[in-house]
Write a structure and sequence with these properties.
- It is a single chain.
- The chain has no helices and 11 strands.
- The protein has 111 residues and is mainly beta.
- The strands form 2 sheets. Strands 2, 4, 5, 6, 9, 10 and 11 form a 7-stranded mixed sheet that branches. A 4-stranded antiparallel sheet has the order 1-3-8-7, with no helix packed on it.
- Strand 7 and strand 8 form a beta hairpin.
- 31% of the residues are buried.
Length: 111
């Protein structure tokens, strides 16, 4: 059974940085497109970024130039480096692999 375990959330001031990491159990990781979604209070879950097995990336417009998604196929991990954080980035962030979600990690951007 594939499991996703996120880490790295927390409280940060506007303009600060955080790095989220997700460990994926199971051999499907290296073949799969993986990514991060987020859900703010009262809003629908939205795509943040994805990365294919070959390393091609896709970002939602609001995070382009600030967030970077990466993966390590040897370690079965996917990470999200978040820089220049804004209060509107506050949300629960979920690691994703097709049809499977992590438990989520809270990111709060506030002074």
């Amino acid at each position: 059974q594939v499991q996703l375990v996120e880490s790295g959330g927390g409280l940060v001031q506007p303009g600060g940085s955080l790095r989220l990491s997700c460990g994926v159990s199971g051999s499907i990781f290296r073949l799969a497109r993986v990514g991060w979604y987020r859900q703010a209070p009262g809003k629908q879950r939205e795509l943040v970024a994805t990365i294919t097995s070959g390393g091609s990336t896709n970002y939602t417009d609001s995070v382009k130039g600030r967030f970077t998604i990466s993966r390590d196929n040897a370690k079965n991990t996917v990470s999200l480096q978040m820089n220049s954080l804004k209060p509107e980035d506050t949300a629960v962030y979920y690691c994703w692999i097709p049809n499977i979600w992590g438990q989520g990690t809270q990111v709060t951007v506030s002074s």
